[in-house]
Amino acid sequence: AQTVTQSQPEMSVQEAETVTLSCTYDTSENNYYLFWYKQPPSRQMILVIRQEAYKQQNATENRFSVNFQKAAKSFSLKISDSQLGDTAMYFCAFMKQSGGYNKLIFGAGTRLAVHP
Amino acid sequence: DAGVIQSPRHEVTEMGQEVTLRCKPISGHDYLFWYRQTMMRGLELLIYFNNNVPIDDSGMPEDRFSAKMPNASFSTLKIQPSEPRDSAVYFCASSYGVTSNQPQHFGDGTRLSIL
User: Fold this and answer.
1) For position A29, what pLDDT does the model report?
2) With A21 labelled, which of A64, A72, A115, B33 sits at a CA distance of 20 to 30 A?
3) Which of B11, B33, B100, B110 has the most A C-beta neighbours within 10 Å, making it the best mutation to test the interface with A?
């Protein structure tokens, strides 16, 4: 069974600084996808970034980038130039890549607070 | 482009009452998911549908929970009778296609409080 671990329940950062959120996962699969979702106080779950395991290049979306280390089963999220609107819960998620639908497995989340 | 629409946004009711949560997926999406989020257990998948047909309901906690999808644009999650431990945020999500790289789009959730 796959598991996703986020070891940082809470993080804080000053506005304009950079912060890195950690995520590790456990799987015997070789092909899979990894995601970071953001849940602001409004509760909506918003997809921030995703990474295909077969791609060596780290995914980037504007100020958000990942450090994907497949051998170490690590998938951290870096937020550059943090903004107050980045304050939210961040969830790391894993999905197998195989025929048909596969479950999204979520981590417990990291609460990020961006301070002015 | 409208996203996934859930109603109500908040629901407070007394133990033993029937609760119905509603979801309208994004038009054209053929997968629909119901999740429950609690502090203790995080985000859990309860059930998902493909083309209106329930495919996997192994996450549904008890027989008190039921879900239906009478058509491509509407789904309900019903709890009868409700209990205080059902208090949680319930999310509906939808996606298009069977490949894993299609992201799930979530609604704003329904915060359910059972007194």
Assistant:
1) 86
2) B33
3) B100
